[in-house]
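Colleagues,

For the teaching module next term, I've prepared a clean inverse folding example: a structure given as tokens, and then the sequence designed for it. I'd like students to try predicting residues themselves before seeing the answer, so please don't circulate the second half yet.
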């Protein structure tokens, strides 16, 4: 009897969640898709003209994505990225449920913006996966988006991670695509004038975030890309929401707010190029990725990087091992 009651309760809740999501989501037509635990960027407007602004670019030689390696402090980053905090008093040092940070980056007359709000994070989602029924029920209450899109979230995780135990030895992921573009840079002297650009916080990290967000946006939606970005950033540094960083966080060479805020901005640029390529190649979840399609897609991404960072690239070839392996993986996953 208790089992039947539980099933009825879950069914009723599922219906409520479905109605909630349908009433708060819109088709993937460039409009913002809203969810309790993710806030799509303010850049999601109805048309491209509304995103073209008259603004000064104070970051020379860069037209779009950012390199965290070019900023030594948070104050330096704030000369390029406008950061605004909305943190209603809670009476404690905890992060309130309405805490929000908004970022705005303007480059070459075009602006992107992102809004990150308090909510569930990647760690909480991963923990609940291995727990009982009521913990999963709690997750469904807190974030129905994650529950109803769990299949696609698993697919994204497969595309983002090397999993040789599932896809065979030499499995490749988003990071390998970023490394491939790094290896394709032909203007070495121009690209690597700044020593930090060769490290983990340089091109490789920017390529990784922009590439990943572009693919998620093209294959799924901008709302899905936003959700993945938000739960990831909240997990790694919740203080991003309030700006209350410790001295250690501000000076940590491996994990500091400069890196995370740059990642958030690069995610937005990745979503923009992902939307354009989605339309250009008519990409959807049932698309069969041939080596030719993947080659064209990655070469378009490299063209964006070339314009953004003012560097040259060798184009990908349909015969590249990375192209063949990742095209096969996308088709297996999707």
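(Answer key — instructors only)
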């Amino acid at each position: 009897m208790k089992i039947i009651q539980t099933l009825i309760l879950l069914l009723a809740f599922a219906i409520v969640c479905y109605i909630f999501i349908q009433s708060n989501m819109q088709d993937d037509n460039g409009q913002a898709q809203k969810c309790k635990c993710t806030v799509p960027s303010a850049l999601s407007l109805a048309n491209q003209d509304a995103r073209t602004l008259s603004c000064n670019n104070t970051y020379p030689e860069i037209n779009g994505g950012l390199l965290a390696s070019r900023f030594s402090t948070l104050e330096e980053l704030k000369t390029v990225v406008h950061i605004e905090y909305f943190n209603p008093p809670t009476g404690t040092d905890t992060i309130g449920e309405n805490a929000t940070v908004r970022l705005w980056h303007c480059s070459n007359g075009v602006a992107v913006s992102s809004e990150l709000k308090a909510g569930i994070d990647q760690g909480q989602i991963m923990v609940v996966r291995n727990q009982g029924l009521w913990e999963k029920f709690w997750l469904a209450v807190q974030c129905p988006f994650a529950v109803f899109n769990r299949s696609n979230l698993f697919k994204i995780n497969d595309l983002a991670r090397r999993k040789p135990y599932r896809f065979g030895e030499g499995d490749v992921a988003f990071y390998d695509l970023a490394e491939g573009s790094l290896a394709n840079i032909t203007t070495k002297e121009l690209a690597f004038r700044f020593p930090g650009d060769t490290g983990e916080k340089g091109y490789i990290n920017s390529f990784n975030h922009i590439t990943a967000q572009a693919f998620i946006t093209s294959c799924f939606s901008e709302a899905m890309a936003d959700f993945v970005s938000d739960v990831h950033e909240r997990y790694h540094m919740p203080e991003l929401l309030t700006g209350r960083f410790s001295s250690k966080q501000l000076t940590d060479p491996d994990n500091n707010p400069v890196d995370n805020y740059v990642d958030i901005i690069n995610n937005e640029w990745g979503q923009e190029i992902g939307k354009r390529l989605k339309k250009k190649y008519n990409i959807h979840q049932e698309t069969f990725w041939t080596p030719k399609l993947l080659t064209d897609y990655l070469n378009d991404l490299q063209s964006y990087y070339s314009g953004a960072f003012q560097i040259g690239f060798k184009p990908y070839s349909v015969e590249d091992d990375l192209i063949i392996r990742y095209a096969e993986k996308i088709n297996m996953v999707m």
